[in-house]
Structure prediction request, 595 residues.
Amino acid sequence: MQLHNTSKKFQRYLALTALCAGMAAAMPSAHAANWLMLQGTEPADNAPRAKVWGFIQPMYSKDFSDAFAGKYVPPKLIGPSLDSQSSFNILRARIGVRGTGFPLDSHINYFLLTEFGNNAITNGGKYGSYKPYLTDASITLNYIKGARVRLGLFKYPGAEEGLQGIAAFPYIGYTSVTNQMLLERFPTNGETNIAPQTVPNADMNAFSAPVGAFRDVGAQVFDAFDVGNWEHTYAVMLGNGHGVQMSDNNSSKDLYLYWSSAYLFDKSAKGPFRPSLKMFTWYQKGKRTDAYDNTKEQDRKRYGVGVSYLKKPFRVSAEYMWGQGMIFQGQQNPQRMFNNNKAAGGYIEGGYFIPNTKFELDLRYDTYKRNKGIMKGPTPEAKFNTWTAGVNYHFNKKTRFTLDYSIRKYSSVFTPVNNQLKDVKGLLALQVTAVF
Amino acid sequence: MIQLSRITPIALLLAASLATTGLAQANEKAEPVAKVMQDKPFAQTRVALQISDGSPDKQTLILNVANNLLKFYGPDKVDIEVVAFGPGLRLLFKGNANSQRIADLAAQGVRFSACENTIKAMTKKLDHVPELNPNARIVPAGIVRMVELNKAGYFVARP
Prediction:
């Protein structure tokens, strides 16, 4: 009998352990901060009328991939121009202003940010030209307790990697799943994928419109609630579904849902490095008009779950995400840019802040499966697995140097696609981030 | 009946007026300097801290300074009064992000004084009386309070 009880206990323990391990494996990145509150609100009666802020990220990157039959595809070239295998760049240079316009009434705050760097927001690629862009312009009304309202152009609630303040992102590049499935591209009529090219001057950036940058124009209702040491946050948003472009190209609106519950190890701590354990889930659904046949529309659905833990010297996070519709095909093989297939992916990463030093060691594994279950045809299943090892050297709290090296294992079940993907090799990147 | 209908709006107006006055008077008047000094009979050091600046950094700084004084001298040995006027009065607004810190300092004997002249000026700008932190005590004029504290031997600092 005792043995039976012990066995049952052991089974329960096993089940619990498996659940915890499953959660840890299936979910999370980034820091355990409340990004919705940090970006959408200001401290009551403690915000300036106008606080100028921003950051600059000069970088250098080198790709070690081999050409296939003398030609290259985008994962083997340095973006956003995609015409070289090594390049210096100003990846981001953002300046903005935020605060409470009328400091005596802290019920209204605003947030403005502009992008001057050279990236997929500002670089029009083959068909366009560099142009600085307004990435955020929002107002938050804090009059209804439990239902703050944010209006304008801002980051929509979603995956941690996109929602977080990018200046606090410990890596230089996004994971494949974030880059391909979440960082939305918007083709316009006439823009098609470009066949593999020789370098130099390949220039495979096929887009003239800026990427979505995890932002949308719309209205969001949100707030955070403290229950003991727990902080629960929700957000519901309706948006155009057209990224940073301040227009709506169809009559449908995108729906964004978000929930997070964070256990705060130190309730008095604030900011992006607040020690906590956060679990979160999110959902997005919208429609996209076919750029090649504007009488057709396609659903775009994304959802995910994640967890992040931060208590120095350790940081761990993981997230798993699914998507259907508007799956970006990349350009390893010229096809239609998007399709209605399914995709899924995730990452698990961690960081260790070496005590009494300025060094932070990071390691991330990310995986992405595109066109899930499609075993033949021109848009076949493709897998992207990447290990990224990184070092951050923190000169001070606002300035750091980052060195990342990524080992990439890409493959596809379709030979012509696989031929190009299998030769994708390591990627080295160095960057300095200076926040002001 | 007619009289009642005439009286009702007047009564409502009076009630509203009282309610508004009530808001303005929700915080007690501060005691004179000579009286508050008696509350800290063992204090060997007396400091008056002025905040008349709207900067969030100044809010943090003044609370840090008060906290550091308490730590160095000990709560019984130091008498601290923070006087807020002009844009600095935002520190003593009811919902200020530093409310918990203010409560912690008040529990250790730090006094917080709010300038009535500033409250009146802000009432005009806001169209309503600003709600203040429950630990704030009203003084007729912040700058006069500073002068009185200085006359009584307080070290005056504006961090």
User: Anything to note?
Assistant: Residues 1-31 of chain A have pLDDT under 50 and may be disordered. Chain A has five helices and 18 strands. Residues 2-26 of chain A form the longest helix (25 residues).
